[in-house]
Specification:
Blueprint: H1 3-32, E1 35-38, E2 40-52, E3 59-73, E4 76-85, E5 97-101, E6 104-109, H2 111-121, H3 124-138
Antiparallel strand pairs: 1-5, 2-3, 3-4, 5-6
Helix pairs in contact: 1-2, 1-3
Length: 139
């Protein structure tokens, strides 16, 4: 096995570690956030990112939405934020049902994150394909 195969293997390993970190972060919050409460969306900040294609010069824009939630739990008021890519999920004044971690009430989970977890899971077959390709070429 050559140095190139080792480098490619390390890059694949890095992608696996990052992917698993993201997946387990979502799953952990789904598990620990058990207390259902209604929150109020106090504001939504839109972040516009401009991307210019180096070959064509075409400019595209992507958007992310930082949503601020405020809610009461056990007599205390908490404020926390969630950032959603591409789609604006909530508007100011909405009162969505969220789940919070009773041991850390600033940690929340919303239904929109389940969609993000599903989208992220779609990358599993792609990673498996690259693993199989790597194994087939090197062994």
């Amino acid at each position: 096995m050559g140095i190139g195969a080792i480098i490619v293997g390390l890059i694949l390993l890095l992608f696996h570690v990052l992917f698993l970190y993201c997946i387990f972060g979502y799953i952990k919050r789904i598990i620990v956030c058990t207390e259902k409460i209604y929150a109020k969306v106090t504001s939504v900040e839109e972040d516009e990112n401009k991307h210019k294609d180096s070959k064509t010069g075409k400019i595209t824009y992507t958007y992310s939405y930082k949503t601020f939630f405020k809610y009461d739990y056990n007599g205390q008021t908490y404020e926390t934020t969630q950032t959603y890519d591409k789609n604006r999920r909530y508007d100011r004044g909405d009162e969505p049902l969220i789940k919070i971690n009773p041991h850390n009430p600033k940690e929340i989970w919303t239904k929109g994150e389940f969609i993000d977890l599903l989208k992220l899971s779609l990358a599993l077959p792609l990673l498996a394909f690259f693993d199989l390709l790597y194994i087939g070429v090197n062994f």
